[in-house]
Task: structure prediction
Amino acid sequence: MTRPTPTQPRDLWEKDGSLRDVYVLDTTFTDWTLLLSLAEKYGYQYSYAGQDLPLPEVEKIFTARDGPHLLSVKLGRVTANCHFFVPDEIELDFDPREIESDSDHYEVLQFLEALAKGTNKKVSVTAENAQDIPYLSYDPLSRDWVVYEPPAIPQ
Result:
């Protein structure tokens, strides 16, 4: 398996004011539990309705809907944020401004590989709110990354 470089695709970490989203689709509570286990491994902060709390079981997160949930997972200097929007889709976001080095980039990819392998589901990195337009995807079955290079910009 070869991981994409920080410039594959060329606009992956472009500091354009938008976030990068990560999607794992058709998730179950088992998949969410895996995400919470990864958060504990990497280090995290969890809050509900603005109050820092210990990380609850995933079932409790999706039944407590009176306030916003935020899980911030520390991947070295980069933070992956999860807001627990819907139970059948894990969505994380990254701020490209936090990707300052090759090691930051590879730390993110290693985390995404662990998430894909643990859930046994494909993981896609997209532009903010562009679920159907991936920059990258990782398939845990083939153990391959796919890079979706945007069309060349006319000169």
The CA atoms of residues 55 and 118 lie 19 Å apart. Strands lie at 20-25, 44-48, 51-52, 69-75, 78-82, 89-94, 123-127, 134-139, 144-147. The chain has one domain: 20-147.
